[in-house]
Design goal:
Its EC number is 5.1.3.15. The active site is at residues 168, 274. Catalyzes the interconversion between the alpha and beta anomers from at least three hexose 6-phosphate sugars (Glc6P, Gal6P, and Man6P). The chain has helices at 121-126, 196-199, 252-256; strands at residues 2-6, 12-17, 24-28, 34-39, 48-49, 71-72, 99-107, 110-117, 131-139, 143-152, 161-167, 170-172, 179-181, 187-190, 203-204, 216-220, 226-231, 234-241, 245-250, 270-284, 289-298. The strands form three sheets. Strands 6, 11, 12, 14, 15, 16, 19 and 20 form an eight-stranded antiparallel sheet that branches. It has an eight-stranded antiparallel sheet with strand order 7-8-9-10-21-18-17-13, with no helix packed on it. A hairpin with an 8-residue loop joins strand 4 and strand 5 (48-49). It has 300 residues and is mostly beta strands. The protein has one domain: Beta-galactosidase, Chain A, domain 5. Bound molecules: 6-O-phosphono-beta-D-glucopyranose (BG6). 6-O-phosphono-beta-D-glucopyranose binds next to strand 19.
């Protein structure tokens, strides 16, 4: 098992090696973006790439990676909080260079590394709050776990701050054959609707298995925290803690062909299932911390 940290300058630094299993992960310092996760399942031990990265993705730190697992913080989508007005779509975590924190674990059970991000001048110009982020990525034989830890590092007299957070998983799967469940009975907001009014009106999910056969951009609220992503030859389970919502996104040709760094037909090769806290905001007081975590498990 190998976790490789890759800097935005393309230097590669292996930080842990575990020979018992063939799983591997690769993380860019830029955005702390996991750009590869190879793992087998108990029925098919052959390590297989589980994430989609567009062939046209920039991997040189010039823009967020179109694929893998970008980290969305402190705003999801176009900012809606008055305090986030200067942020760009999905915030700054995915387009800043993180620092190596530590190898948290390297043993038979797996490999775990920590990256950190503290405010730099560019971040302070957009979001002037005292914080520290830690991102822990843990690789086990059939599992990848990512955890984001947000700390308010200000003195007790400092104002609290509010944020959203999300793991933007591009799960490699045949998009037109994939189903996501259980989401029946969950309310969602449909971002593909044409008007602001329609986008703000909740819909109720009726499908036992949600498909993305047409352009889909749905924000499920209080979605339950466990999602099965299943297709004829594979299955991945996504389990989330402290991330109450989940976004299901696939642009299909309609929107995908307009994305500059999307390879031709790329939308057929993945589905984004993104656990997050994106309806409303997490608020933390000075000295407080918040953590959100996901576990991706290869089932088939
Ligand atoms: O192009 P970006 O900024 O990486 O965003 C991709 C998509 O990310 C999803 O999470 C959003 O719900 C979509 O609205 C958005 O289009």
């Amino acid at each position: 098992m190998v976790v490789t940290m890759t800097s935005w300058l393309w230097e590669r630094m292996p930080v842990g090696e575990h020979k018992a299993a063939g799983a591997s992960a690769e993380i860019l310092y830029y955005g702390a973006t996991v750009i590869s996760w190879k793992a087998g399942s108990s029925t098919n031990p052959q390590p297989t790439e589980r994430l989609f990265v567009s062939g046209k993705a920039a991997l040189d730190g010039s823009k967020p990676v179109r694929g893998g697992i970008p980290v969305v913080f402190p705003a999801f989508g176009a900012p809606t909080h008055p305090d986030h007005a200067k942020l760009s779509q999905h915030g700054f975590a995915r387009n800043n260079v993180w620092a190596f924190g530590a190898t948290v674990m390297d043993n038979e059970a797996g490999v775990s590394v920590k990256l950190t991000l503290a405010p730099n001048d560019a971040i302070k110009a957009q979001f002037d709050h005292p914080f520290e982020l830690e991102y822990v990525v843990t690789l086990a034989e059939h599992q990848l776990t990512t955890g984001l830890h947000v700390k308010h590092t200000g003195l007790s007299t400092t104002a609290p701050f509010e944020f959203q957070a999300l793991f933007h998983n591009y799960i490699r799967a045949p998009a037109n054959d994939v189903r996501i469940s259980p989401l029946a009975g969950v309310s969602y907001y449909d971002k593909t609707e044409a008007t602001e009014e329609a986008r703000a009106a909740p819909k109720l999910e009726a499908r036992a298995g949600v498909d993305v056969n047409k352009f889909t951009d749905s924000v499920y609220e209080d979605a339950g925290g466990r999602y099965d992503v299943v297709w004829p030859s594979g299955a991945i389970e996504v389990r989330a803690t402290n991330l109450k919502d989940v976004v299901v996104w696939n642009p299909q040709q309609e929107a995908g062909s307009k994305i500059g760094d999307m390879e031709a037909g790329g939308w057929e090769k993945y589905v984004c299932v993104e656990p997050g806290y994106v309806r409303g905001f997490v608020k933390i007081e000075p000295g407080q911390a918040w953590s959100g975590q996901q576990v991706l498990s290869v089932k088939v």
